[in-house]
Design goal:
Helix content is 37%, strand content 26%. 42% of the residues are buried. The protein is globular, with a radius of gyration of 18 Å. By secondary structure, it is of the alpha/beta class. Strand 1 and strand 2 form a beta hairpin. It has 9 helices and 10 strands. Among the domains are: 46 residues, no CATH class; 119 residues, 3-Layer(aba) Sandwich (Rossmann fold).
């Protein structure tokens, strides 16, 4: 069942066409990777989906509603959540309070007490429950990323947009986060779209389908290994074939 649809979406900044007539759909409960080199339009595409920008052309639909011109703050209560490449905590608030904000203003629309309970649940899930009373500004970079994931999940989203969330993590932490996301996706029937620049290891283990961006356009879309090993993708982006992990 379709959750998100982009129809010929275009965004220009002056004479630069950052995203050019991009169309794709995301099904409910699906895991998708968006990859591409620097300057390929990935971040602009995310900002269009999330409502940071409105497209110059095309339409965006979410859960059957036209959200093309809906601002970001109005998309969260519909069931859309996002993490950012550079974490943006409320520095003076505790880790627990930061995550509770997601529960209060996302799809969950929880009361303060409910939000704090939801925060505890997801802090346990991502493995930083012991940091719940620490000011968010004092967390390590990895802990801030995990807090962002917990806050996004606390929103109880239908669609979770992950923006380079695994960048800078060691392989062990990446594997743990992927297993967590897989479990949450299945248990809570969340669609997850993950934007990744270089971590093909993460994409091959997580994404069922991949969209490759290049110079603002959708270059290819399809099953993960098939797309990543396409000659065009190897030529302009990866430089070599991708080997799938033995574990799948």
């Amino acid at each position: 069942m379709e959750l998100l649809r982009l129809d010929n979406v275009t965004k220009k900044f002056g004479g630069l066409v950052a995203v050019n007539k991009v169309s794709f759909t995301v099904e409910k409960g699906e895991a998708i990777g968006i990859v591409g080199p620097n300057g390929s339009g990935k971040t602009t595409l995310y900002n269009l989906i999330n409502g940071v920008y409105a497209p110059d052309e095309g339409r965006i639909y979410f859960d059957g509603k036209d959200i093309t011109n809906l601002p970001t703050h109005a998309r969260a209560p519909l069931g859309m959540a996002r993490t950012f490449q550079i974490p943006r905590p409320f520095g003076g608030a505790t880790t627990r309070e930061n995550v509770a904000v997601g529960a209060m203003f996302g799809y969950a629309k929880a009361s303060v007490d409910e939000a704090l309970e939801i925060a505890d649940e997801y802090l346990r899930m991502v493995g930083i429950y012991d940091k719940r009373d620490v000011e968010a500004a004092k967390l390590t970079p990895l802990e801030k990323r995990l807090m962002e994931v917990a806050r996004a999940l606390a929103m109880k989203p239908k669609l979770l947009l992950l923006d380079e969330v695994m960048a800078g993590m060691n392989p062990s932490d990446i594997d743990k986060l992927i297993e967590l996301l897989k479990r949450v996706k299945e248990e809570e029937d969340i669609s997850i779209v993950s934007m990744v620049e270089h971590l093909m290891h993460a994409i091959t283990k997580f994404a069922e389908r991949v969209i490759v961006m290049h110079q603002g356009e959708k270059l290819l879309e399809g099953p993960t290994m098939e797309v990543l090993n396409h000659p065009k993708v190897i030529e302009i982006y990866l430089g070599k074939k991708v080997v799938e992990d033995a574990e799948g």
